[in-house]
Amino acid sequence: MTSVVGADADSDGRNVSDVVGVLVLGACAGWPLISAAGRDGRPEGVLLAVLAVAAGYAAGRMSGALLPVAAPCAGALAGLGRACALPQTAPGAQVTTPLGQAGAVAALLALATGGACCAAWATPVPALRRGLRLLAAGIALSGAVLGSAAGCVASTAVLLCSLAAGRIRHRSAGVAGLALAAAVVTGTVLAVAANVLPAGLVSALEGPLDARRVRLWRDALLLARRNTALGVGPGRFGEVGGAASDALAPDGKPHSALLQQAAEQGLVGGLLLAAAFCWLLYALWRSPRTTPVALTAGAALTALAVLAAVGDALSFTTVPAGAGLLAGLATARPWATAAPGG
Question: What is the spatial distance between Cα 273 and Cα 174, in angstroms, rounded to a whole number?
């Protein structure tokens, strides 16, 4: 009887997380249309990103149920291949300056490492587990080969978090730690943009962050403050972002997902982006998979959140699709363990 009750509780929790996901993604798709109305906004990019997350999540749930080991392994190899196919960054790129394509490369490497580590935790075969962890280590090292210092650091952090996840008994503590890490980075970005940090600390951060990026962030925050309700419209930062944006951001982006959302879609847009990340962590918390698998995926998604907070990773459709895929794989119940009462 206890196992049946426990299974029912897990099923209810999964249903709640699925409903929350539908509501959050629906709001993320609907709000850009509202923000764009009457402003010449271009919501297509945001809609494509939301569709990529939803499609990736659905594909991950299905493939993860059928092939709990092979599917994340294949996803890891695909992510690595896609990262190698993107235009390469210059050797010695700064760890904290993933501008443009460099941010996408770093994000794909972090997600690929997470996929390999999830596959390692999912297999009961010790030799295969060691091989998959070697694959994850190889993906992390490939960041150095590709000239992506940010990708190397992010992937290494995911690998270390995955190894540590095997010693964590309470999943809630791990999820809370990941949420706190993302919140600290996000708060720091906002503090830098608002210029409220001590002068010495700002100077120390502007070095690795690059003064150009900081000026773009401040432009974005200024736009967000002036257009709190609806923003300036999706895709319009480059048009109304001021002289700094014209000179420093030829791609029309402030190179921070949160600040871009806030500037282009107002306060609600920024909150919806945060809500999407919180939903993914909640889904992993309620996941029927083992704690190491859930926390490994959470570490990879948190690494992506950090990269997106200081870079432009989410502007590349492959990245949100990969994030959705990894989250789906880590929340799928393998059919072999989905029997009633088990």
Answer: 21
- The residue-averaged pLDDT of 280-286 equals 96
DSSP class of 168: -
For 294, the enclosing helix (H) or strand (E) is helix 291-310
| Distances 116 to 109, 143, 162, 195 between C-alpha atoms, Å | 11, 15, 10, 40
Residue pair 148/114 in contact by the 8 Å Cβ criterion: no
Residue with tokens 């629906």: 26
Q: Tokens 């990969």 label which residue?
A: 322
**What is the rounded distance in angstroms from the CA atom of residue 262 to the CA atom of residue 257?**
9
First-residue to last-residue Cα distance in the chain? 11
> For the chain, how big is the Rg over CA atoms in Å?
20
Is the CB of residue 31 less than 8 Å from the CB of residue 265?
yes
How big is the CA angle at 263 (ends 262 and 267), to the nearest 5 degrees?
A: 35
**Which residue's entry shows tokens 């809609």?**
47
pTM: 0.91
Element (DSSP H or E) covering residue 143: helix 126-145
pLDDT per residue as tens digits for the range 284-327: 999 999 999 999 999 999 999 999 999 888 989 999 999 999 99
Structure tokens of 222?
């200024």
Supply 295's token pair: 């926390």
